[in-house]
Amino acid sequence: MNLAFDDLKRALTAGELIFHYQPKVDFLTGEIRGAEALVRWTHPARGLISPKEFMPAAELRRFVPAITGTLFPALVEDFRIIKQTKPSTSIAFNVSAEDLDQPALAHMIDEQVRAGAFLPDELEIEVTEGARVLDSPASHRHISGLLAAGVGLAMDDYGTGFSSLETLNRLPFSAIKLDQSFVFEMLDSSKSATLVKTSIAAAQMLGIKTVVEGVESESIYRSLLHSGCTQGQGFWISPPLSLPEYLDFLRRDRRWPRSPVGMLRMAQITHTWQYKLLVDVVCAVLQQKSEDKMPLDQMHIDHHECALGRWYYGAGQEFLGDPDFDALREPHRAMHETCEQIIEALRHGRRQQGIRFLLTALSRDSIRVAGCLERLETRILLDEICADTGEDLGRGLLS
Hints:
globular, TIM Barrel, alpha/beta, 9 strands, Four Helix Bundle (Hemerythrin (Met), subunit A), 399 residues
């Protein structure tokens, strides 16, 4: 049976377009943290129809904003019901460049956020056509308004189509969603695995969370567990579910494998990268012959706010009392103090001799930080293996 455009218009009016919800697992906790809202057509004759079968026609006839605008109030009501079952949760839904180019949806979302339907970090919009959004001043204004209201912005299908580094650089994304085509090939292709893991690391360095699509097997899930990605979704976790099915799914409160190693690794990678970047800027300042200013003001933030600090004072606190975790604090703070001294010395024109001493101290403390992190990571990995296998792998050897 062919799906005529008039059927789609009738279906929207008749309430046959609904949301199904695909759960997302948090790799750090193993819990469901939210879901992606995916539109489905409950056709009276054909049953459930995927958007792949009807959205192309909607896009061709510029009907997508009508669908999005009509369904958003239903999303608000669904989320109200979901929060009664799981108060701490979030929802993401897809919008097109055409949606963002018009003021109606942005105003509707803003009104609901201001009315308290969504708290900060509870609502995220996923954009699949970032490059088209870049070309629209109106979309930029509407996105800025939504971000000011506390709505998150995710780049969907990262690595394909309209997704690009330019888009990531120019739009204030809070998350990227790695396209499932790369994830599917991770176990069979070292190149795909490298692309996935380096994308996750790059996002972490930019302070952006990573959601991975296409978790279709336990093997894929476990291959991602230590990679540093924030959340995952896919059929191994759950297919998209109707609202009643999703509520039942949440009530079962299932747990998936969890590991703190990924976030620890990302904190360490970002720490090392920021340290190397500082050294490069210092060398560039010392070597420059012109009076051009280098970005010194951007080279240092408080020790609570850097990637390592956010991890240490956040998720890392579960390791409080571990000797290597506790030993991180002093050299980490010392690095930040030394960094301030280096920047101050450069501002006042002091050159090689004094800065050489400061860089040596910075390097010494960086090595101490790296050693603590490496030992802590190894112990955690061994503990995880022991928990899975029941074997004693000589925990005391690394104490």
